[in-house]
Give the backbone structure.
Amino acid sequence: MEKHYDVVIIGAGIVGTTIARQLSRYRLNILIVEKGIDVAMGATKANSAIVHGGYAEPHTTLKGRLCYAGRQAFARLNEELNFGFKESGSLVVTADDDPAPLYRLLEQGRANGLTDLRIVSQDELREMEPQLTPDLKWGLLCEGAGVCSPYEMAIAMAENAIMNGAELKLESEVKAIGGSKGNFVVETPSGSFQTRYVINAAGVQADVVSQMVGLDDFSILPRSGQYLLFARGSGKAVNHVIFGLPTEKGKGILLTSTIYENLLIGPDASEQEDREDTSTDVQRMAAIYDTCKDLYPGLDAKQFLRSFTGIRARSSTDDFLIEETKVPGFIQVAGIQSPGLTASPAIAEMVEGLLVSSGLVLEPNPDFDPYRKPIIQHKELRPLREIKPLLDIPSAPEKVICRCEQVTEGEIIDACGRGIPVKTIDGVKRRTRASMGWCQGTFCRPRIVEVMQRITDEFDARFDIEHSGVSRVEKSELLDFLTSRADK
Ligand SMILES: Cc1cc2nc3c(=O)[nH]c(=O)nc-3n(C[C@H](O)[C@H](O)[C@H](O)COP(=O)(O)OP(=O)(O)OC[C@H]3O[C@@H](n4cnc5c(N)ncnc54)[C@H](O)[C@@H]3O)c2cc1C
């Protein structure tokens, strides 16, 4: 045991990485410990990617109070960190004659401080979203809501925190926590770390981590949500994030374009015991498809690219739990279900405040640099004939490795040299989009492996092999299911 940290953050999702980046503004020894092989391996990599307006949760909840505050930071953070954010606006729509539920959301939003909400009538709705069913009668528009790239955001936060002095240890699952405020000892397979403060940002495992210091005052009740992602370009069909009316399980199924113009539909909501099972199920896929087909009749299953599941870390209190606990120095950041991504900048500021109240003295880091260059340059894809000559040239920065998303060798090398060890194809994919296109990696996977094996000793093919075993509904299965159902 060598170094004594000021703060150890458990979990490198959007919450842990945003806290680390926020704290890296100060002269502090900060360590993030993450059990996964990369950052953003939990809920942060599998969610709707919506920067929510802040009207869906009441002001009586912490979720309600932190959402809008977080949303307001996105434009600035994206300018600094270049993770991808688009203020597309959101619409809650209804085919009912009675707009009362929308007015209730409007009032709730105003209580949360929002000033960019208004009710839109059928005519305006048709103009705004000509591809949606003409049956819709009313909408609630939130102009400043939008979409972002959540895992790129967490990667950017972590890269910038590291650049500003924070440390990250991957594949370091916290197994035990000993000691007390000022002198905690955090035990992981890659070492024991002494620290003055511990921040628990362990997502679906937050209750398990809490129990390590003897706290037993909440539990995580995992709730999964499944999604269907469609081909690049399909997202142009909608201009806003489209929600139906909320249900008792939350904001309900939505339809949106991602920042890369893939149509994304989902999530449904189902309680499940297994906190890590991210398989998908064809019946659930079909139910999501049906809901969205009613809203957007042009929805085309043939454009379906892939399915995925995210697990919500819903706490037994059904709200965010952010506090210094009765174990002094142990800061709880648990139960961070939706809108946790949106709220993350505000959560990080709140945690900073808790640390100060607990006696941590914050001196500015004179070397703090808020900027981080993008990896992915948002670009229109070039015609195939233009990139063909760059496909089979010898190794060079401009060599095109991924044909569908037009990712170059130079971009892959850049992505791997930014302070976070990139050990997997999945890690390359999330940083560069290589293998996210129409062929889903059939063409570029061996080419990525070739580059990775050349540039790093840390490349670990085992991870990608293990994860290729997660049972996910493929296109043929979905199409067969929809056809067989139609035939009955
Ligand atoms: C289906 C779904 C849809 C959502 N949609 C939205 C949305 O559109 N907008 C929005 O604002 N929010 C949304 N959310 C919520 C948002 O995704 C989460 O609030 C956010 O990602 C939580 O981040 P986190 O860092 O707390 O958790 P995670 O991303 O889960 O990170 C926790 C990390 O802790 C690590 N960890 C766990 N145990 C240990 C341990 N013992 N030792 C070390 N590391 C450990 C995990 O490996 C993981 O990387 C959605 C969530 C889901 C599931």
